[in-house]
Amino acid sequence: MLARGKAWHKTCYKCNECNKRLDSTNTCEGPDSEIYCKTCYGRNFGPKGYGFGKGAGALQSDSTLNGSYDGARAVLRPDTKCILAPEGQGCPRCGGVVYEAEKMLAKDRVFHKGCFNCHDCHRPLDSVLACDAPDKDVYCKACYGKRFGPKGFGYGNAIVAPDAFNGYEDFSNRPTLIIDTTSIMAKDGEGCPRCKGVVFEAEKILAKGQNWHKRCFSCSKCHRPLDSISACDAPDREIYCKACYAKDFGPKGFGFGHTPTLVSVTGDIDHLHLSMPTGVAPKGEGCPRCNAVVYAAEQMVCRNRLWHKCCFNCADCHRTLDAQNLCDAPDLEIYCTPCYRKKFGTHGFGYGMGAGTLLSFQ
């Protein structure tokens, strides 16, 4: 067994102090040219002081150091106030100097690790649990919600109860809190598009560069609450759920929608066609196939151009395309792979299927 450039017997390769067998993962070479396990090395040669090691650095009572441990070791806490910092530069909680090894950051302020706890319940905090409050102190999420969170029915753990709540109380007759988002009106063009009220940061939802209140961000037709996945921007500058958007602005015709589906009694469907939005887009901005406006819910992107979902098909065989079988052609149209090869692929003996293959008459 090799250590410090010397060869050891396997039976001799053990800690010099506790005689624990060692291997390459737990061997520590001491300055006295002996080998130790990690625990004994830390005890003999490791750093000393508060918070280090098991017995090597932990500050112990005199009785413990003398070998007469009585089971009542006191918990030692450093006095962070013994070295006071200049005003405004130290720990906001105790005013002491904060050194690099014990630094905790919150809103450009440095706390001692021992001082970085909730102001109310004194729960130790970290970067996930800490909440900066308007009083320039730090709180856990629960205490922050109690002090600075919204008040009213439905907020908090269950219901915000009166201070004198000591037992069961019937809350069924309590009125529901309705937030009036129009109490502070915004300037023209700056507020919520639905109620025109000011939208503050905590209730902001974005859609097409506009800020909405959380309670206003619902379908204009069925009033279903929306999110970034289910919201559809419509030509009337309102927002809809996908079902209502499809009914009002989606393609009409055979196989589309629920109510507007056209059913052929005779079986002849040649006369049925898709009814796309009639709005013509400015030149170069609409669908390359039909030149109509392409809204967000029906967009298909290809080469920085927007296509309607129903227009996104092969220019020759009208086969529906996707990212796997799409081919951009020099004529600025889109084709499926076989049609692209016929039109623009290599021609000659051995190429294509019927696109120019040279055959021998013999």
TrEMBL record:
- Subcellular localization(s) per the UniProt record: Nucleus
Keyword ATP-binding listed? The answer is: no
According to the entry, every stretch annotated as the LIM zinc-binding domain falls at 1-47, 89-150, 190-251, 285-346
Task: Write down the SUPFAM superfamilies for this protein, in alphabetical order.
Answer: Glucocorticoid receptor-like (DNA-binding domain)
Signal peptide annotation: none
Q: Which GO terms describe its biological process?
A: muscle organ development; muscle tissue development; sarcomere organization
Picking any one GO molecular function of the record gives: metal ion binding
Question: In which broad location class does this protein mainly occur, judging by the first location in its UniProt entry?
Answer: nucleus
Q: Which UniProt keywords apply?
A: LIM domain, Metal-binding, Myogenesis, Nucleus, Repeat, Zinc
What GO cellular component is one of the record's annotations? nucleus
Q: Which Pfam families match?
A: LIM
Enumerate the PANTHER family for this protein.
Answer: MUSCLE LIM PROTEIN MLP84B (PTHR24215:SF35), RHO-GTPASE-ACTIVATING PROTEIN LRG1 (PTHR24215)
Q: What is this protein called?
A: LIM zinc-binding domain-containing protein
Provenance organism: Artemia franciscana (Brine shrimp)
Taxonomic lineage of the native organism: Eukaryota, Metazoa, Ecdysozoa, Arthropoda, Crustacea
